[in-house]
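Hey, can you fold this one?
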Amino acid sequence: MRHLVIVPLVGFLALIPIARTQAAGAQTGSFTISENGQPVGSASLDFVPTPQGYDSHSLVRVNRQGLDYALSKSEKLSSSNELRHVLLSATVNGEAVAVTVAPDGTQILINISANGRSTTTRLPHHAAAVFLPDFDPGALETLMTLAVEHNNRDLWAIIPKEAGSIEPIQLATYADESGTLNGNPVTVHHVVIKFGSAHADLFSGPANQLLQAELPQQGFALVRKGFVLTPPAKAAAPPSQ
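Sure. Predicted structure:
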């Protein structure tokens, strides 16, 4: 999480019964970012249907001792939520970072500029690959939607760290929890994603919207404004597969 180039947040299981569709229209959301329970920033997501699929926009701002981080990401997705193009600009402790990602035949081309240097890396192409910068709620919501589209199989994380890499994602579904959204009771789906040495707890609502994300290794959390999670005293084990 302290690298100059952005480090990501991070079977046959039913994740959420519905996926994002163009009929659902535009989606927006605002989030508070906290560290060990203390607010340190904010984030937002915005999905707009287009004739080709979706335009996704994310904004992130974190300001705490040792980390001054701002991110702006524009992403184009197909109608099945697969990556078509990403343009990201960010500053990390005063240093500028720029990233572009796009499929190129049987590969994914990622360009990263940071510290006055530029690198171009070709990664294996996977249909269910999601670009995962730090604290990006739009990326996490796209990941959950892709999990539905691809039956939780063959999910991959494109990691904009150093020269860029791609890692397989493991996903486990936990027992539903409960909470309130804007004061109304809501059923909360709970999944854990793992890739490489990173993992994150993701909580979503019945409409597949991201409600909360927790990164226990770093002590950070994203919480949608208006959402309150009421977790059990002890996390449940994943159901038998």
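Residues 22-228 form one domain. Let me know if you want another pass with a different chain boundary.
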